[in-house]
Structures are given as C-alpha cells and as structure tokens.
Amino acid sequence: MTIGRTAAAVLVAILLAPVSGLALDKITVVHSSVSGSQAVLFVTRDARIFEKHGLDVDIRFIAGGPVAIGALFAGEAQVAVMAGAASVAAVLGGADAVVIMALVNTMDHVAFAQKAIQKPADLKGKKLAVSRFNSADDFAARFALRRWGLTPINDVAILQIGEQPARLNALRAGRIDLTLIQPPLTALARKEGFTELAKLSELGLEYLQTCVTTTRTLIQTREDLLRRFVRAFVEGIHFYKTRKEASMASIGKFMKLTDHEALEESYTTYASTLTPRDPAPTLKGVQTILDDLAERDPRAKGARPEQFVDPRFVRELQETGVIDRLYMRGS
Asked: What tens digit of pLDDT does each residue of 65-99 get?
C-alpha cells in the first residue's frame, strides 16, 4: 500500500493525536503464555498507553495458542497475543483469523536438560516436555531434535506438561529430561545448574514465533479500534525499548519474579534484541510454519503466506514516519 502525500499528512495527524475527553472503548485481549515474549503487552498497559489512545484493555490469560484463539471465535476477545503456528493452523482450518503484528520473528527458546545430559546425542530414549502439541515450543522442540539428528517421538518422547513454570518444575523433579523455556526463566534454570544445550535463536530460522491476531470481520467492522490498538502497541514497544526500569518492573509483576538477573535477561533478550521496532509479520516467517504444517496437513502445501497476515496498520505507521518519529524523540 502506498499513501499519497496529502493523505499521509492527514493520517499522520490522526495517528499522532491522543484521544482525550471521550469514554474509553473496551477491548479484550487474551494472551497464551506467561513468558518474556508476551511481556510487552503488560508494559504497554502499565504505562497507560492504551488509555492514551482511547482504549480500556482487559487482558486475560488463556494457556496455549490453540485455546486462546478460540476466544476470538467465541466473541470473548477481540485480539489474541499468541504463537504464530496456532494462528496459521486455525486459518487453514477455515477460521476467520489474521495476524496483524509480529512481536518475535525467530525462535526464542533455550533448551535445558538434566545435568547428566551434556550433548544432544545423550537425549536418545529420553523425555522432552512442551506446553501443548502444535504450540510454538512444540515446533521448536521438533525442529531442534531434527537438527540434532534425532527423530521426534521415535528417538525422544514428547509430553504435554503445560506452561513454562510447570515444565521447569518437572525438570527439577526429574520427571522429564529436556524442555524449552524462554527468558526470564532461562536465568533460573542456568543458576540451578541444568545443562544449556542450545539457544534456538542462534539457529538463524525466520519464524513467526509470537504474534498479534484478530479477525478479518473485526477489521471490517471496527477498523479504527484496531488502528488505535496497533498504534498504542507500537508506542508501547518504544517505551519497552527506552524505559528499562519501568519495563522490568512490569515484567516482574506479570511473571511474579523478583530475581534481578532473570528480569535483566528477559529485558535484554526481548527489548534490546528480539522485539522489532516495526512489528510487521514477515512472509518468510509464515512460510516456515506452512512448511512444517505441510508434513501433517495437505492444506498447507498450496497456501500462500499472504493469506494469513494483514500488516496494514503497521505499514501505515511505517509509511507515514510515525515509528521513525518515536525513536527520533528519544523518549
């Protein structure tokens, strides 16, 4: 989409103008994981940036992307912050869903194993825990196993255990041999002496890890609501990247963590490294998911990445220079 100069000037004025003196529009957002990758949602809320843009945001936790996205279809939420794989799979199944922002465009998990396991080959015959099958960490686990020359299920059993705290506790109790977790819990696992086998972000895979999903119907009926939501979220990302102490306080409250080293690791990993200034979903990241799903779902073989994303709101902010202006202000 290309915007003419006059239209762009008008749109910039609209996008930059805070909403004041009006009743806030209510919007319910579900998120699928208690992890550093979704912390920016809470940073934005705590900084009251949603309110600045006329939004009263109710945030609810629903574990697992496949379950969280169901809240959209049931009309219980208007937006879901979740794993990209669940969104893509839902669209393949005929669901009215579309990705409008990407918060992480690569795998951000770190593989931790029992202390006796020192290399990937030691995993043969062992047990690996994920949150749910077809979740982002399930994809990452299978990808890592194949990269290490191991066959998922046949060589390494995969168990559904739940969210990251539950998986880390299972590792502590010796009920599993390996799991994938994200910052800030990675700092705790490292302190406790578990073997760090790999940082999956270093494998260089472009992948729609964490995204913001809504429905095409809502875009058609409440376009202004979603435009303001994305504008606020992009401003929240800027706050996240430039207000370290306040952001770390939000992360700690969200994840119920007080360990400073763990909070520092989460902030450094996401705010400084993995969270993009321009959170537009990439087609290559979607294609990676489609290639994986095609092994089990023939509908993925002929699908095009463009069918799963609508980056119009982020593109408007890019083309009108709104994002550049945020960072030029330096605060």
From this structure: 778 888 998 999 999 999 899 899 999 999 999 99
